Amino acid sequence: MLSFSSSGLKSSLLRSFGAKGLQIEEQLLFEYPSCDGRSGFLLEEEEVKCKKPSSLGDLERKTPIDLPCLSEPQVTRHYTRLSTKNFSLDHGMYPLGSCTMKYNPRLNEHVAALPGFSDIHPLQPLSTVQGALRVLQNVGDALLEITGMDGVHLSAAAGAHGELTGLMTIRQALVNSGDIATKNVILIPESAHGTNPATAAMCGFETVVVPARKEDGCVDVECVRDLCKKHNVAAIMVTNPSTLGMFEKDIKKIADVMHENGGYLYMDGANLNALMGKAKIADFGVDALHINVHKTLSTPHAGGGPGAGPVVFSKALSGFMPSPNVHRLKDGTLHISEHPHLTSSGRVKQFHGQFNVLVKTLAYILALGGRGIRQVSEDAVMNANYLLSRLTKAGMTPAIPGRRCMHEFVLSDKFLKDTGASTMDIAKGLLDNGFHPMTVYFPLIVSGAMLIEPTESESLETLDEYCEILSRLMHEAKTDGEKMHHYPSFTPIKRCDEVLAAKKPILSFDDIPK
User: Fold this and answer.
1) Strands 233-239, 185-189: parallel, antiparallel or unpaired by DSSP?
2) Locate the Aminotransferase class V domain: which residues (predicted)?
């Protein structure tokens, strides 16, 4: 617990405000000078007189509470300034690869805030929330239409939780068939998200890495076949398009190999923004797929949450998916049902998941329709290929030379060789030029990786400006690599020791060096 003096802060720790133009370097609330009696409200004297509580015992406070005494304008300005420090899509382009940081229509926020959605409780009688149940049913039906799958479960709270839900369902199917004792390995491609092996381990499986094919970074069918002969494989987890931005063109063959060996194909849906409306996931032979609707279908990613990661299933797994699920009774009313105890993989979330996130998902889908959903994927892929082409011509090095990408692509640091500059220098230089950095040093199989995803949201003018700045930073690196080490210079906090901060975090305000 943090501890502060009643005056707000010891005089030796007081810091002065700093500002550049109207960008004020905000202090912590406890760094403001405190003035006894100052507050944003007034209580009548008799209201604060009360009988001494007798049930608190030794827990009764004996000293004044250590909170600063501030006026309402001071507190309002403090939190308003802090709110502006959070860079978001409302500020500018956010090209984090594999995260799909796209614009989210404000109308959907309004829809989710309607009283019939925001003022209900999951323990209400079902007869009083038929509209909410209809939203859940419609979201599920829409996701099945987009993917072509057979079953859908909506409770999962985000992507990694969706992965957990999918593998729990696969595990339950193996338990039901009696194969769980022998099927104990999950195959994980070398370029996979780190959550994949973590999820497999949480479900009690061992993991075996599938090496990336050298020419395109994709999964090799024959390698999967060989691994299935060597190990008792329960499933393979494939991200398609891959984290390298390449379409796994052998995905159906991989599924066939898994099914021939009594296993399942789990597809990581983090990159669905490149496929929806263009391809039916069911045609790939997929058995389970999570959908990051907080990225792909409108809701605010990286805004502090919450997220949602519905999971769709093939016919082979639909009978084992978690509960609860919505279905329609003979009289037309909607009902929440539980699966039979022996076949369901149980609950993965309290009540029915992140309901208001799913409201935004439905609003987004209905606003775009089938043609709009398809155009999202087409524009996302077009924007990524435009950036890849321009940056390659400018002299940057793609991780997969000579190939077109899907919705994202990876640059390596080869163009920085012998310059003294690094991927991190490029990322920090972007900060000084008004752009949030791309994902750096991931995937790990690419040296000095720069993973870029523009999404469909960005205009041609924004993409051109981004290319110009990256090209200028590359030129600076080749002509004066030492200069790159001084980026960023305009941000309130300059280049900090991120490794030290991770290894030795300062968790108490009192531990800040005097």
Assistant:
1) parallel
2) 170-298
For residue 48, pLDDT beyond 70: no
User: For 406, how many CA atoms within 13 A lie in the half-sphere containing its CB?
Assistant: 26
Q: Which residues contact 335 (CB under 8 A, 6 or more apart)?
A: 126, 133, 326, 327, 328, 329
Measured from the Cβ of residue 268, the count of other Cβ atoms closer than 10 Å reads 28
Beta strand 18-20 with 23-25 is antiparallel
CA 361 to CA 62: how far, in whole Å?
51
Instruction: Please tell me the predicted confidence (pLDDT) of residue 6.
Output: 37
Instruction: Give the SS3 label for residue 207.
Output: strand
Nearest-10 Cα torsion for 4, 9, 13, 15: 130
The answer on pLDDT for 441 being more than 80 is: yes
User: What band does 54 get if pLDDT is binned at 50, 70 and 90?
Assistant: low
CA–CA distance, 102 with 95 (Å, rounded to integer): 9
More confident residue, 51 or 306: 306
3-class SS of residue 488: coil
| Domains parsed from the chain with CATH numbers | 1-48+60-85 (no CATH), 144-361 (3.40.640.10), 367-501 (3.90.1150.10)
CB atoms < 10 A from the CB of 447, how many? 14
pTM for the full predicted model: 0.89
One DSSP character per residue, 136-148 reads HHHHHHHHHHHH-
DSSP annotation of 27: P
Is the confidence at residue 498, as pLDDT, over 50? yes
Closest residue by Cα to residue 387 from 271, 468, 315: 468
- If residue 217 lies in a helix (H) or strand (E), which one and from where to where? none
Distance between CA atoms of 226 and 257, rounded to whole angstroms?
10
- In sequence order, what are the beta bridge partners of 189? 210
In tens, the pLDDT along 71-97 reads 999 999 999 998 888 888 888 999 999
Range scoring the smallest mean pLDDT among 156-160, 224-228, 310-314, 341-345: 341-345
Residue 438 and residue 246: Cα distance in Å, rounded?
18
Picking from 203, 248, 258, the residue whose alpha carbon sits closest to that of residue 225 is 258
